[in-house]
Amino acid sequence: MFIEYDLFRERVDALLYRIAGACRTAGRDPAEVTLLPVTKTHPAAAAEYAIRYGLAAVGENRVQEAVEKRALVPGALRWELIGHLQSNKAKLAVVHFDRIQSVDSEKLLTALDRAAGELGKKMPVLLQINAGNDPAKFGAEPAIAPRLLEFALARPHLQVDGLMTIAPLSPDPAVAQRTFASLRAIREGLTARLGAPLRVLSMGMTGDLETAVTEGSTLVRVGTALYGPRE
Ligand SMILES: *Cc1c(COP(=O)(O)O)cnc(C)c1O
């Protein structure tokens, strides 16, 4: 049994309250932080709930699952890919997503740019950076971020909105804090060097969203706190 809408609404309210609290602590304007509900593994109703609440976008981590779900959910909702993408699925991803957050190689940038060109689309992307230097995570190494960004900015059919990271799984909250601070520092370095504004910093999930907001996140990707545990 999937959760009822009323429970979802209460959870979104509670989460927005938590985000606002973290913003207050950090001296930030809550309007700078967007909540992205992560609907992966959950039924199409999860995305319908997001629309009904008035949220603009949802996150999915697998292309095929999102394609099937999106077909069941009419309406003005943007779909963002947050999971690893292989170059051979670039075209499918460009057709079915409104933004791709998990771009971490020149090979993938090339494939996405070509697909977007063929479809006459300017594809918004985020560069995923492995800011926590976690061997278990995808994402470009921080050292190659400047080269990757330069390459991305030269792709005519892509629009680079910002950066994304996933903190290493750790019982020590300082690990996530360092990871997020590192992504923000990388953004500042890249902006100074290449002049790209990189407005979006996608960081923070159910377990570490307050830390992420304190460190400058503009987009928190939340699944469990909204929809409950995944099977
Ligand atoms: C699943 C997922 C999330 C959401 O995680 P929760 O802990 O359930 O909030 C966020 N970001 C990415 C990249 C994910 O794959």
Structure, described:
- The chain has 231 residues and is α/β, with parallel strands linked by helices.
- It has a single domain (5-227), classed as TIM Barrel (Alpha-Beta Barrel).
- 45% of the residues lie in helices and 16% in strands.
- It has helices at 5-26, 44-53, 63-72, 90-96, 106-119, 145-153, 173-194, 209-214, 224-227, and strands at residues 34-37, 57-60, 78-81, 99-103, 123-128, 158-164, 200-202, 219-222.
- It starts with a helix and ends with a helix.
- It binds pyridoxal-5'-phosphate.
- Pyridoxal-5'-phosphate (PLP) is lined by residues 38, 40, 61, 82-83, 166, 205-207, 221-225.
Helix and strand arrangement:
Elements: H1 5-26, E1 34-37, H2 44-53, E2 57-60, H3 63-72, E3 78-81, H4 90-96, E4 99-103, H5 106-119, E5 123-128, H6 145-153, E6 158-164, H7 173-194, E7 200-202, H8 209-214, E8 219-222, H9 224-227
Parallel strand pairs: 1-8, 2-3, 3-4, 4-5, 5-6, 6-7
The protein binds pyridoxal-5'-phosphate.
Q: How far apart are the first and last residues' alpha carbons, in Å? A: 12 Å
Helical amount: 40-55%
Bound molecules: pyridoxal-5'-phosphate
| Alpha-carbon Rg, integer | 17 Å
Main sheet specs: 6 strands, parallel
Number of strands: 8
Low-confidence stretches: none
Given helix and strand content, the structural type is: alpha/beta
CATH H-level homologous superfamily name = Alanine racemase
Strand content: 15-25%
How do the helices and strands follow one another from N- to C-terminus? HEHEHEHEHEHEHEHEH
Any guess at the CATH architecture?
Alpha-Beta Barrel
Major sheet: arrangement of strands: 2-3-4-5-6-7
User: At the third CATH level, what is the topology name?
Assistant: TIM Barrel
